[in-house]
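REQUEST FORM: STRUCTURE PREDICTION
Request ID: SP-0412
Submitted by: Lab K.M.
Chain count: 1
Length (residues): 528
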Amino acid sequence: MTANFFRLMVFIARRERIASSIWIAALVLSSVGLAALYPGLFPDQAALDAMATTLNTPAMTALMGPVYGLGQLTPAMAFAQQCLAWFAIAAAIMNIFFVIRHTRADEELGRQDMLAALPVGKLATATAVLLSALILNGVVALLSWALLLAVGVEGTTAAGAAVYALSAGLQGVLFAAVALLAAQLLSTARAAAGLSFALLGLSYLARAQGDMDGDVLSYVSPLGLGLKVEAFYADNLAPLAVLAAEALALAAGALVVNARRDVGAGVIPARPGRKQASRFLRGPLGLAWRLSRNTCLAWAAGLFLLSASYGAVIGQLDSFASDNDMIRQMLEAQGGAASLTEGFIALLCAIMALSATVPVIATVSRWRSEEKRGRLDPVLARAVPRERLFGSFLAVAAAEAVCFPVLTVTGLYAAARPTGLVDLGQLAQAAFVYVPASLAMAGLTALAVGLLPRLASLAWLLLAYSFVAVYFGPLFDLPKWAARLSPFGNVPQLPVQPFAAAPLLALLALAALSAAAGLQGLRRRDIA
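STATUS: Completed
RESULT:
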């Protein structure tokens, strides 16, 4: 039995040899590469202090976390303060996908029945997945620690690099346990992943609110607790112990539930559907919406709440800028912002647009997941052209790209309206200017699904690159051509930059041509 258990772990490793290798390389190289840029970005103590003063505002604290070590900052400390939160979020996303893919998704596809037939015990798969996730995060943490020491940014210590890497790794393990528990409670992979990502989003919101107000929410949230290590400064070990204990408790709970439930069933049963389909569901468009509805609604609620939470701090931003001429001058030099409020709105609308593109890509990619599972065969066996069915997925994705900015604007304006510092028209322009970029991402995803379905997941890599280019590009002074490799790097950041119609029209043309080519490719290739 022990030999079979280790063979199961080897089997998981073999299945993950490509996907996990890409995740490891992306996480480690991006983190270490960003660290290597900091000495050039902040060549002296004055530059570091100016950066810290800029980040020590309510909005920046909500985005990145609290600033520590004022007066004795080093490039290593600045790197940890600005990057650890995003490194941990990326690690959490990696673990959620990893665990759901090898547990609930395999049960849906019937693969778990074959594994359960082996003499390995009922808990073998769940335990093997947990240990594999632990190894995966250990590899990421070990490589990050070693390469951070090799780069040797000023202020880097062995203890600080270890605390930085372990914080992200333990947060990843914790969310692996969260995903495993969700896979036991819910009966579909989509629902389990949705619950896991919802908890990740709530953790981020709790951390943001707790860091701004200095209350206990920062310690309740795993993301907030992970930042309490204060890497390269205090190097606290207590938060790491708490994260490990929480991960262990969640993993134990997931294994207990797994031992008591039937294979293929969740503790919370799926809600039975209607006996007869509604008139709307009888067409391809209704089917595409039904398959994407839960993800769309969950992201809509999350974006609205996140926008409202950031809109609530806009009043504090302007008052802070009025007392700090240096920050105003820095913003004007970087992008011509007349106030800290405008610079914050431009940055926030870009981040919200990137976040809103996640369900857009997911909707277009849904075709590929349904195709691999054979669920499209009964539909396409009837008089339903595949171009019409795939076009329905594209139509739903396009509607999401247009509707999500409405939620961003509504949340921001509703929370910031009492301050009198935001204009609804200006806010709407800053949000809707990113719609062509989201549509271009949908078109490129459709192109991959239609012509090169095995490479459809590359759309997520492009979105991740877009986030790095938009969020970190101005901070690290990346060349313009690097940002323009992403559709979002060609969008004028209103109200900081002047409006330009040409790049938006080019993005719309790219979206249309890519979608048309994807439809043509899908018409010619074999299904599955």
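NOTES: The chain has a mean pLDDT of 84.
Reviewed by: T.R.
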